[in-house]
Design goal:
Structural class: alpha/beta
Largest sheet: 7 strands, parallel
Order of helices and strands: EEHEHEHEHHEHEHEHEHEHEEH
Shape: globular
CATH topology of the largest domain: Rossmann fold
CATH architecture of the largest domain: 3-Layer(aba) Sandwich
Mean pLDDT: 96
CATH class of the largest domain: Alpha Beta
Low-confidence stretches: none
Radius of gyration: 21 Å
Number of domains: 2
Helix content: 25-40%
Number of strands: 12
Strand order of the largest sheet: 8-7-6-9-10-11-12
Length: 314
Amino acid sequence: MRIVIPDDYQDCVRHLACFSLLEGHEVRIYNDTVKGVDELAHRFEGAQALVLTRERTAISAALLERLPCLQLICQTGKLSSHVDVAACQARGIRLMEGSGTGAATAELTWALVLASRRHLVHEAGRMARGLWQGHLGQQLQGQRLGIWGYGRIGRQVAAYGRAFGMQVSVWGREGSQREARADGFEVARDARALCADSDVLSLHVRLTPQSRGLVRASHLALMKPGALLVNTSRAELIEAGALEQALRAGRPGFAAVDVYESEPVLDAGHPLLQLPNVLCTPHIGYVERDNYERYFGIAFGQIRAFAQEAGQQA
């Protein structure tokens, strides 16, 4: 099969052990991102299978009309609104998805919490410049950790908070609240109370049309001046522009962000990068070797099975 893999920013996919599953197939890999239909159609010309890295590239009906050879789309992780599912089905394009444990994102979330509360990046930078202690950090023990969304990642982050001696509060859908109580965690009275009471607030809600803009400016305004907001989920969960305004207003006092409304962020002038009270990382929550082996291993295995089924086995 002719396979195209876009958006391999780090040129790492061909170095994964699971890449051997594609031996004998024709594979083209791109290490950057383009957005326009014309550019994507040119890159994907002749492709029979696409392997998508999460939501980095949108597959629209207009694009699919330009890809007559396409038979299969393998999504690393879960399909989302970036793929026009109805248009794929209308054209007989098979859609497949995989899943991960969420451990890599949960671990990155906690790394951001620790780095932010102890100002690790600033302190390391000062020491590299020949300076000594410059910031007073904040311990986590005894602080309140708020978890907005108690799915597989939120559950892991809550457990880390418990291990660090934090008081953990959870808010989410009724099923999430029930599961949090069963795990021995406190459930907040409502979303406003979660925001007002948390010293660290971490978002773990899946982005859907219903959850877009879920966190509003009014929620952020309730947060403590010394509080930290962490977002390793999706930027669009927060009302557009609200986080920057809230940080400039001092509520919350700090943020650690791994996700952005438009990615990749290649402009050093991005508003969040200009704020001294924000720690930004380039959407690396799920970008980890074991996670990639799992995600891409599932996708490449799906391609082999599809090729065998179609009589195109190499």
